[in-house]
């Protein structure tokens, strides 16, 4: 039977019942933001010797199966992938199927995120090739997990949390398979060139440093040296050349679209007005916004206001899109610090403009470091599926408990100077502001502002922000007021009954357990 | 003579919409039965949260409609209760059940009655069969919302749209927006009135008015329904002139009833009637527009302009609105919330106008205080109409939030 048949639970600092043991490893319940400070030393990869690698630098092998064999892939090992190719990725399934081909069982698959096109991983779980997945799951994979069909427990980590888990030795990667839009035979690899270009390759950095064995898979092999190299060949064991690593149409979008919904545009404009009124939008400031419809529209409104007020940013954080690239080109920001690249304009820019810089979860998000960029950002605009009256928010599950999204960089971004959730107040009659979130993904103490089309709620902990916008025309209201208004429109939703068996856990950025995803009946 | 066919109403019918692209609506398939009570089949994208509530509401609505035996299949796309009720009622009526009965949603308190000469810079069109636009319409702060039963509603959907608009008037909070309804051309529009007037819309737009009698006919019917429902608040009328004859009869139409608050113009139909091309500059309708403005002012009602149909062209809209204000119009229609702000800016008095009006009003107040019959500013005597205009401009500017 399943390993999570009998699980001991403990209540953590935010009152959530969480397993004390996950996939055979003891866990620390969330102690509160900034409370858990582990001692000790980081994980370290084994010492290698050049003697074992060809002096010619040519590490090519015939195919993935050969590479996996040479890596010594065995039952029960951990195999990892990055998700920079998003829904267009072909390499992860190629690697898992190659593993199946050599008869390996019970792998832990450790992607930096999974996508709907990888739903064949379900078959591999059914066949016993994959034991369980630690990484974001949604769509069919998410349902497989929340229906309790996976043999192990799912572990959801933020991008920074994944780096932290590898670096701290919580997850040891045996074999990392890294899809590379361009590479040389030595294993130097780059994401911003080639027919399958995706921009940054930052999500693969930790894997390339800490995994025992590293395989680079490319469909654009160039003569040494591959310049620039985002992945250093010195960390790479084997290089495999394939026809195609992904479907370019699904790797990046041709054009990213701004929302057309008048309500969402209103939200976007209110967010920009908030930054302006609160004095956050000032010379030398910085911000981060994702690639969702509201976030893109926000950038457009903010850009207009920056021009009107003669304000320039020092840096903006990507997820980069055409809209950030335009800011850079029009001199409204000095730099783009880019974690992932969403559209063709972004890819073109990162490949050609030295002010458009690829970053990694190490520089941007890792909490167990000597600081990271996330806390240097003045304001961040994020989404959520639910937020409660105490400003706790959920991004991973639907209100009915089914897995919907990965955490992505969301948790890491909460460390910005001003954290803003930009949300419609209800979706399909389902109110977004609730009494208590289904799955806690971010503690309310770190969420400052909730902007809906019906008004702006500021966390009472942020008296400074309340003061800053006092006297402005912004519709600032208590969060309970907005909630009551929406419930009057929609009715108060029934709370779906969740099961009592954990099927996944949500980690906080420090590796402690923030909440549990329960099996859905 | 053809043989009389005895028509029996159908026993099953449908109403509403469902599908992947549909939001905030619901599809209801109603099948009347001879016995066996009520059977409800529910499929809803919000079932875990509102499944029980929807089933309960369905039973209640059927009960109010007097339906005892039926099979009702509901395919819900997150519709709000006032929409669910409207769709069930429409399906039941189409199936020949529930005749003469209504199921009204919970009443949202009515806003204060609308003033005859209130600000009407912008009226946002809301199609009478698209409920997803209603709830948040007032957040975009048009001066009015206009629930449309005419051009945006398919011929076969008029009955359902009427019921939906009636429920919307009753249940939806439109904030400080004036609640307008555009009915269909008479005589079909009279059926619209029968359904919606009981819910106290603030203003009825009557399309294609050509004769004053048409206004009087609608006005009489509104009066009768008001009396029956004991409604004492005003329901204003805005005739839409969209033909050569209508334009020629503008003054008679504007004075046909005390309840006419404004005249407006429909340029698509007007240019078609003339057999000319409708252009962006609108030279072909200059006469009609000028005539309408003149008639409206002669009758002491507002002149309201048509819509500007290129949603993407904010600059063109701004120019149109400014020209429209300069020609004597007080507002226009909008077909997208994004047009509202531009229109409001276009119909805003300039700083220079405000300054001048402020001086005149100051002089007027001083004359009043000193008991003088003649108002003068510096060496110039100010005529009473000029004073009146200045007072009105200041009052409007205040209502627009331009001055405090």
Would you kindly provide a written description of the structure presented here, covering whatever features stand out?
The complex is a heterodimer of chains A (521) and B (404). Chain A is an alpha/beta fold. Chain A folds into two domains: 63-134 and 171-251, Glutaconate Coenzyme A-transferase (3-Layer(aba) Sandwich), CATH 3.40.1080; 262-501, Glutaconate Coenzyme A-transferase (3-Layer(aba) Sandwich), CATH 3.40.1080.10. Chain A contains 15 helices and 29 strands. In chain A, α8 (262-277) crosses α9. The model of chain A has no long low-confidence stretch (mean pLDDT 95). Chain B has 404 residues and is of the alpha/beta class. Chain B folds into three domains: 12-94, Ribosomal Protein S5, domain 2; 122-346, TIM Barrel (Alpha-Beta Barrel), CATH 3.20.20.60; 351-399, no CATH class. In chain B, 40% of the residues lie in helices and 18% in strands. In chain B, the strands form three sheets. Chain B has an eight-stranded parallel barrel with strand order 5-6-7-8-9-10-11-12, surrounded by four helices. In chain B, β11, α10 and β12 form a beta-alpha-beta unit. In chain B, α2 (81-94) runs antiparallel to α3. Chain A binds chain B through residues 262-263, 265-266, 399-400, 427-430, 453-454, 489-491, 493-494, 496, and chain B through 23-24, 45-46, 48-53, 77-81, 135-136, 139-140, 173, 336-338.
Which descriptors apply to this entry?
heterodimer; A: alpha/beta; Glutaconate Coenzyme A-transferase; seven-stranded parallel beta sheet; 25% helix; globular; B: 404 residues; alpha/beta; TIM Barrel; eight-stranded parallel barrel; four-stranded mixed beta sheet; 13 helices; 40% helix; elongated; disordered N terminus
């Amino acid at each position: 039977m399943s390993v999570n048949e009998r699980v001991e639970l403990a209540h953590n600092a935010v009152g959530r019942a969480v397993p004390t043991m996950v996939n055979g490893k003891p866990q620390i319940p969330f102690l509160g933001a900034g409370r858990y400070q582990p001692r000790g030393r980081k994980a370290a990869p084994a010492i290698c010797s050049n003697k074992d690698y060809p002096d010619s630098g040519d590490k090519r092998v015939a195919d993935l199966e050969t590479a996996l064999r040479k890596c010594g892939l065995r039952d029960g090992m951990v195999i990892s992938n990055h998700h920079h190719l998003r829904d267009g990725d072909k390499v992860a399934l190629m690697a898992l199927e190659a593993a199946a081909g050599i008869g390996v069982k019970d792998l832990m698959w450790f992607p930096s995120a999974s996508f709907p096109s990888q739903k064949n991983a379900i078959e591999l779980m059914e066949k016993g090739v994959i034991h369980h997945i630690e990484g974001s799951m949604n769509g069919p994979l998410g349902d497989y997990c929340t229906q309790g069909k996976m043999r192990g427990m799912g572990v959801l980590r933020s991008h920074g949390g994944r780096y932290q888990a590898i670096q701290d030795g919580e997850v040891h990667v045996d074999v990392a398979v890294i899809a590379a839009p361009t590479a040389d035979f030595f294993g130097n690899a780059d994401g911003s060139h080639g027919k399958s270009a995706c921009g940054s390759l930052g999500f693969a950095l930790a894997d390339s440093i800490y995994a025992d064995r590293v395989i680079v898979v490319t469909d654009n092999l160039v003569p040494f040296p591959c310049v620039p190299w985002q992945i250093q060949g010195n960390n790479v064991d084997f290089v495999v050349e394939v026809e195609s690593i992904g479907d370019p149409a699904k790797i990046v979008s041709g054009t990213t679209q701004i929302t057309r919904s008048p309500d969402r545009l209103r939200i976007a404009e209110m967010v920009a007005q908030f930054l302006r009124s609160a004095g956050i939008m000032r010379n030398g400031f910085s911000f981060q916004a994702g690639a969702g419809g509201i976030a893109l529209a926000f950038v457009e409104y903010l850009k207009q206001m920056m021009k009107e007020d003669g304000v320039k940013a020092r840096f903006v954080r990507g997820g980069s899109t055409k809209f950030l690239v335009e800011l850079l080109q029009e001199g409204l920001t000095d730099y783009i610090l880019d974690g992932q690249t969403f559209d063709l304009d972004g890819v073109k820019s990162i490949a050609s403009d030295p002010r458009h810089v690829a970053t990694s979860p190490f520089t941007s998000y890792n909490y167990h470091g000597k600081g990271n960029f996330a806390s240097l950002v003045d304001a961040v605009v994020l989404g959520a599926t639910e937020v409660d009256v105490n400003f706790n928010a959920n991004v991973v599950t639907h209100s009915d408990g089914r897995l919907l999204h990965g955490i992505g960089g969301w948790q890491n971004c909460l460390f910005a100077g001003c954290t803003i959730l930009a949300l419609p107040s209800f979706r399909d009659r389902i109110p977004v502001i609730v009494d208590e979130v289904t799955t806690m993904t971010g503690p309310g103490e770190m969420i400052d502002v909730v902007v809906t089309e019906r008004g702006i709620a500021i966390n009472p902990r942020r008296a400074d922000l309340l003061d800053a916008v006092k006297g402005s025309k912004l519709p600032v209201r208590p969060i309970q007021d907005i909630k009551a208004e929406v419930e009057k429109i929609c009715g108060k939703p029934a709370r779906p009954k969740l099961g009592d068996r954990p099927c996944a856990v949500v980690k906080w950025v420090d590796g402690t357990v923030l909440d549990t995803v329960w099996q859905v009946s | 003579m053809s043989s009389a066919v005895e028509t029996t109403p159908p026993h099953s019918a449908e109403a509403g919409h469902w599908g992947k692209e549909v939001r905030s609506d619901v599809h209801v398939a109603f099948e009347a039965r001879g016995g066996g009570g009520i059977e409800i089949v529910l499929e809803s994208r919000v079932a875990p949260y509102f499944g029980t509530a929807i089933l309960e509401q369905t039973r209640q609505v059927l009960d109010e409609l007097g339906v005892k035996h039926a099979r009702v299949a509901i395919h819900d796309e997150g519709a709000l209760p006032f929409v669910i009720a409207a769709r069930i009622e429409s399906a039941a009526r189409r199936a020949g059940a529930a005749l003469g009965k209504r199921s009204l949603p919970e009443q949202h308190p009515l806003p204060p009655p609308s003033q005859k000469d209130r600000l009407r810079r912008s009226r946002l069109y809301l199609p009478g069969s698209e409920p997803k636009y209603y709830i948040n319409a007032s957040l975009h702060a048009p001066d009015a919302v206009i629930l449309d039963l005419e051009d945006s509603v398919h011929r076969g959907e008029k009955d359902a749209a009427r019921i939906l608009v009636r429920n919307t008037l009753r249940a939806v909070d439109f904030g400080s927006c004036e609640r307008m309804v555009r009915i269909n051309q008479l005589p079909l529009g009279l059926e619209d009135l029968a359904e919606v007037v009981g819910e106290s819309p603030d203003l009825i737009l009557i399309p294609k008015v050509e004769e004053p009698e048409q206004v009087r006919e609608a006005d009489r019917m509104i009066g009768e329904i008001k009396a029956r429902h004991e409604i004492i608040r005003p329901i204003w009328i805005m005739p839409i002139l969209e033909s050569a004859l209508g334009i020629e009869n503008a003054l008679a139409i504007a004075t046909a009833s005390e309840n006419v608050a404004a005249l407006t113009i429909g340029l698509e139909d007007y240019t078609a009637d003339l057999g000319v091309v409708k252009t962006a500059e609108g030279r072909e309708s200059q006469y009609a527009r000028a005539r309408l403005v003149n008639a409206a002012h002669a009758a002491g009602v507002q002149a309201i302009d048509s819509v500007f149909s290129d949603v993407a062209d904010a600059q063109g809209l701004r120019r149109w609105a400014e020209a429209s204000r300069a020609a004597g119009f007080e507002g226009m229609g909008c077909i997208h919330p994004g047009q509202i702000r531009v229109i409001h800016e276009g119909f805003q008095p300039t700083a220079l106008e405000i300054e001048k009006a402020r001086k005149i009003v100051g002089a007027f107040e001083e004359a009043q205080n000193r008991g003088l019959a003649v108002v003068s500013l510096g060496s110039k005597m100010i005529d009473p109409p000029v004073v009146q205009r200045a007072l009105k401009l200041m009052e409007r500017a205040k209502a627009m939030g331009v001055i405090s």
